[in-house]
Amino acid sequence: MKISKAYINNYSSVSCAGDSSEELFLSICQKKNTISLDTSYVNETTVAIGKIASSLKFEELLIKHCKKVLEESNLNDFSNTLLIIGSSVGGMNKTEEIFFKDNSYKNINYKEHPIDAIAHLLKKEFTFYDDISFSTACTSSANALGYAKEVINKNIYKNVLVVGVDALSYTTVCGFHALSVLSSKPCTPFEQNREGMNVAEAIAVLLIQDTKVNNNSIEICGVGYSSDAHHMTQPHPEGAGAKKAMENAIKDANISKNEIGYINAHGTGTMANDTSELKAIASLFNENKPYVSSTKSITGHTLGAAGAIEAIISSMALQQEIIPPSKNITNLENNEVKISNEIINQKLKYVISNSFAFGGNNTSLVFGISK
Asked: Would you identify the family this protein belongs to, as annotated (predicted)?
C-alpha cells in the first residue's frame, strides 16, 4: 500500500495573542503583553487569563476561521473531507452562560454541551463527510493532528480539517485554581520563581492534505504517544513519559534526534510540568541540543486547543526560519537545556511540538519542511 504524506497547507487562528496567525506569531516574536488580569472567575482572587478580544460570539469566530481556511484553499467539495475536533471544554461555556443567566438548568440544551457539539455545529455549516472528536485534556488537538496524519498516510481521506478549540470556562478556571496551579500574573515557564499557569481560550484551524500545494507546505513527519500513568494530574517527575513521546515521534519521522532544531515545549509554567519536561529534554538531547521555548507566556494555556495553536507556531517557525523566544525568564531552572530568550534567525529542518496532559497522556509531533 502506498503511504501518502500529510501536509499542513493552510491554517488560521484566533487567541489572546491576535485575531490571525500572523498576529499571533508577531506577538510571540515581539514578546507582547497579551495576558490580562481577571477577578470574575474565582471569588476574591485575581488570576491571569488569556481572553480573546472580539465583538463576535465564540461560535461565530469558529465558523469564520474555518470558512477562511476552506475558502482560501478552494475546498468546496467535502465528500472526501474529515472534520476532527480537539477540545477539552466542548460546549461547557454555553451551558454555564445559560445557567448563570437563568440561575437554573432548565433552559440548557444538553445537545450543545458535549465535545461533539462543536463538530455538529460545523457539519451543519459545511456538510463534511464525517467527523470525530478528541477530548484528552491538554493533548486533545495534538492527538487530533496525529490521527489526521494516520488517516492521510493510509489513504483513507485526502483532506482533513483539524480544529483545536476551547473557550474560557468557569469550570476549568476554578478547577485549576482548586489544584493551586494558577498564576496571578502572566506565566513564566522554566523560570525558577514561576508561580503557575494562565488558562486561556483559542481557536486553531489547520487543513491537512495528502499533497502539498507549494513550498510553504509543512509536513507532519512524525507523531509519538506515551502514557506514563504516574499520577492523575502530575507528570512523571523525571519526565519518563515526555521523553518516550519525543523518542516515538522522532522514530516515526525516521530521522535522527540531532536533526531537531527547535522544540516548542508544553511549558505551562507549573512547578511539576516544567521540571519534568526540562529533565526529559535534557536527557534525550544530551548532544546537539536544540533550542527550546514555551510560547504559553504569550498565548496562555489554551488547553485542548494548545496542540493545534502550537502546530501553527511550529509551522511558522519553519516557514520564516525564526526560533520563537521565551518570555519572562530571568533565572532558568535547568541550565542543561538551551532556552531561546530572544528571536533567533536560523534555518530549521525539523521541529518538535510537545503536548502533555492529565493522566500521563503525552503527545509529541515532528514537523518539517516538505520535500
From this structure: Belongs to the thiolase-like superfamily. Beta-ketoacyl-ACP synthases family.
Per the listing, cell 493551586 goes with 180
Using a cut of 0.90, tell me whether the model's pTM lies above it. yes
* Strand 202-209, strand 159-166: pairing: antiparallel
Q: Using CA atoms, how far apart are residues 23 and 15, in angstroms rounded to an integer?
A: 10
Burial class (CB in 10 A: 0-12, 13-18, 19+), 59: middle
pLDDT tens readout for residues 321-332: 999 999 989 898
Provide CATH code, domain 7-209: 3.40.47.10
Q: If you search the block for the grid coordinates 491571569, which residue do you land on?
A: 48
**Within the chain, which residues score under 50 in pLDDT?**
none
Q: Is 113 a catalytic residue?
A: no
- 285-290 contacts: CB < 8 A, separation 24 or more? 285/257, 285/260, 287/258, 288/257, 288/258, 289/337, 289/338, 290/260, 290/261, 290/262, 290/263, 290/338, 290/351, 290/352
| Paired sense of beta strands 218-227 and 7-15, if any | antiparallel
Task: Give me the amino acid identity at 90.
Answer: G
Catalytic-residue membership of 65: no
Q: Which three cell numbers stand for residue 227?
A: 502514557
Those residues with Cβ within 8 angstroms of residue 327's Cβ, 6 or more apart along the chain or in another chain: 31, 186, 188, 297, 298
Q: Give the DSSP letter string of 170-189.
A: HHHHHHHHHTT-B-SSS--T
DSSP letter assigned to residue 301: B
Identify the CA nearest to 21 among candidates 327, 268, 307, 309: 309
pLDDT for the residue 297: 96
Residues of the chain with CATH 3.40.47.10: 7-209, 218-369
Instruction: Give the pLDDT score at 217.
Output: 97
Residue appearing with cell numbers 482533513: 160
Give the cell for residue 371: 520535500
Q: Which of 65, 113, 236, 266 is catalytic?
A: 266
Q: Is 31 exposed, middle or buried (0-12, 13-18, 19+ CB in 10 A)?
A: middle
Catalytic choice (138, 187, 221, 236): 138
* CA 141 to mean position of chain CA atoms: 6
Note if 231 is an active site residue: no
Alpha carbon distance 29, 365 (integer Å): 22
